[in-house]
Amino acid sequence: MTLTRRDVENIAHLARLEITEAELPVYVGSLSAILAFVEQLAAAPTTDVVPMAHPLEGQRQPLREDRVTESDRHGIYQANAPAVEAGLYLVPKVIE
Amino acid sequence: MSLHHATAAEIGRGLAAREYSSVEVTRHFLERIERANPALNAFVTVTAERALADAQRADARIARGKGGLLTGVPLAHKDIFCTTGILTSCGSRMLANFVAPYDATVVERLDAAGMVLLGKTNMDEFAMGSSNETSHYGPVRNPWDPARVPGGSSGGSAAAVAARLAPVATGTDTGGSIRQPGALTGLTGFKPTYGRVSRYGMIAFASSLDQAGVLAQSAEDAALVLGAMAGHDARDSTSVDAPVPDYAAGLDRPVKGLKIGIIREFFGDGLEAETGAAVRAAIEAFRREGATVEELSLPNLPLSVPTYYVVAPAECSSNLSRFDGVRFGHRCRDPKDLMDLYRRSRGEGFGVEVKRRIMTGTYVLSAGYYDAYYLKAQKVRSLINADFRRAFARVDVLMGPTAPTPAFAIGAKTDDPILMYLNDIYTIGANLAGLPAVSVPCGLSGGLPVGLQIIGPHFAEERLLAAAHAWQRLTDWHRRMPQGWA
Description:
The complex is a heterodimer of chains A (96) and B (486).
Chain A: H1 5-14, H2 24-38, H3 74-78, E1 84-85, E2 88-89
Antiparallel strand pairs in A: 1-2
Helix pairs in contact in A: 1-2
Chain B: H1 8-16, H2 22-40, E1 43-46, H3 48-63, E2 74-78, H4 105-112, E3 116-121, H5 155-162, E4 169-172, H6 179-185, E5 188-191, E6 212-216, H7 219-229, E7 259-263, H8 273-288, E8 292-296, H9 304-319, H10 338-349, H11 352-365, H12 370-394, E9 397-401, H13 417-421, H14 428-433, E10 437-445, E11 448-455, H15 461-474
Helix pairs in contact in B: 2-3, 7-15, 9-11, 9-12
C-alpha cells in the first residue's frame, strides 16, 4: 500500500492533526512502509475465526447501582483548562 | 553495604529492624538522583519535599509498629501514572502543563503501603517507543553505556533502578515496555496478567493491551510491589475481581518438575548470537535443576508485530482523541475557529511518533479499510491467542529471549520505525494474549545485559515469580551493577 500526499493530508484531517509541509514527506514514506509491513496479515487464514477484542474471555461488563458517587470537583479539574470563565470551558466562537 | 546496593525488600527489613530510618534512606537516594540524573535524564520530576514528608510519616508508622514490608521504602513512578498535585506529563508536550487532580489506583495503593515517592520517571511519549527517545524531555541514557538507549517505553524507570537512583519503580507494558527496558538494563521487569492491576489513573495508550507492572532488582522485590499494587478496582471496568495471592510467600516453590516450553520461533533470524547463547544456557540451568524442557512451535507468533501495529494504533487514535485543547493539555495560540484549535493544538502537542501512530490508527479504522486491517488483525490476534492456549496445555511456562539484541546506540533506529518496532518481536505476543511475563537478567553480551523472558498462562504470576526467584538463587546476574554509579 503506497499512500500519496493527498491520502496523508486526508488522514491528518480525519485525525484533526496539523501536519507541516516539512513533516508531510516523512509521513507519506513511513505510513506507506507501515501499511506495507502489516499487509502480511492478509495471508493468514482467518475464515471462521472470531475476532478478539479483549484478552480475557468470559468477562462481563460490570454494572453498578445508578446513583451519584462523585462530588462536584469542577474547580479542581478546570485548574488544568487553557481557558475557563464562570465554570465553563471557553472555545472559539462556533455559531456566527 | 551502601544503602543503594540493597534491594527494596532488604531496605524494608532494615527499616523494620531500625537499622536506619526512612528519612535517612530517602535522603540517600535523593542525593544520588541529584548527582546522577543530569547524566541519565531518568527523572522528569523529583519530588524531594514530598519524599521527605512521606518518609517522616513512614518512620512514625514504623515506630507505632504498624509498618508493612514496604513501609518507608522509596520508589519512583513512571510519569504515566496520575499523581495528585504533581506534574503528570506522559513524556509529552501535550501534558507538559498537566498537574493531575487525582491519584492513579497504583499510586494510591503503594502510598497506602507506606512507600516514599522520589519522583516521576521519563518515558517515551504516551508510552509509544522502544528506546525512550520519543520523550518531550529528551532521551534517557542507559547506565551500562550512556551512548546507548535504556529501552522503552519505561526507560526512565529502568535507568533509575539500574543506576540505583531508586530501589524499585513502576512501569507499564503495552507491547514490552517493562520487559524490554528491564532486559536492556539488567533488571527484573514484571508485566502481570491483563486486568490484574487497575488501569485507573494510568494514561491510556491501547486499552486492550496496557498493564501496569514493576521494574525491580529482584523477583522478591517484584513480588512485594506487585502484591501491594494488584487487586480489584471498581474504577477500572477491566479490573479482574479475584483475590491477590501472597506473591512473596510463594517464591520458594521448587523448579523441580516445572515443565518449560522453548518457543522455537524466538530463536530464528534476527536474534543476536551471544544473546541467544545466554538464554539457552539459562534454560539449560533450569533443566539441570530438575525442570523438563521441550521445544514448541507457536506458528502464528511471528505475526505479533504486524497485528500489534494495527490494534495498538487503532486504540491509540481513539484514546488520544480526548486531547483536544479544550479541557486540559496544550492549546495553540490564537485559534481562529474550533477546527483550527483542534488541529494546531494536537499538531503542536504531539511528537512525530505519536502522530504517526494516531494516523496509522485513523487509517485502519476508516471507512473501507476497517475489515481489511482492524478486523483482520483482531482475527489474527485470536490465532496467536490460540497458539498460546495450546502451548499451555502442554507446559507450565514458556521461555525465550526478551529482546533480540542488547541495548543499541541512541539514534540507531530513529529513522526507521519498522526497525524500531521489531525490537518488541518477542514481547508483544504476551500483550496480545493478556499473559503475565517477566524478564530476568541472564548474562552479558558485549558487556551489556541480556534478559531471559518467562511467559505464563493467565494469573500464573506466582509461578513466574517462583521461577525467576529460583534463577536468582542460582546466579548473581541480577546483582551486577553498571560501572560508574557505585
